[in-house]
Amino acid sequence: MAMFFFHLTEGDEVIPDTEGLDRADLAAVEKEAVAGASALVAEAVQNGETDYWGRLDVENVSGERLLSLTFACSIHIDNVRAQPGCTESPRAHRQADRLC
Fold it and tell me: Does residue 87 form part of some domain?
């Protein structure tokens, strides 16, 4: 096992990881970074953010950057309402790119 540090950048803010995590190898580090980024994006969406991005930079104990993972989530919501008599759902409208 080796110690890895997952430093987070959100916008202009850098949040250093001062504790680190023990992981077996770079594959485990990559899996951890993807899971962390996924959780951050999910939390941002749940909090109503519609344009969120960040980066995780993973370093070893020597400060050597081993991995950089950039993530982003952009959400655009169209209020599509079915017209009277239309049997298709709003989702079907968007998928077909048409209205009833």
Answer: no
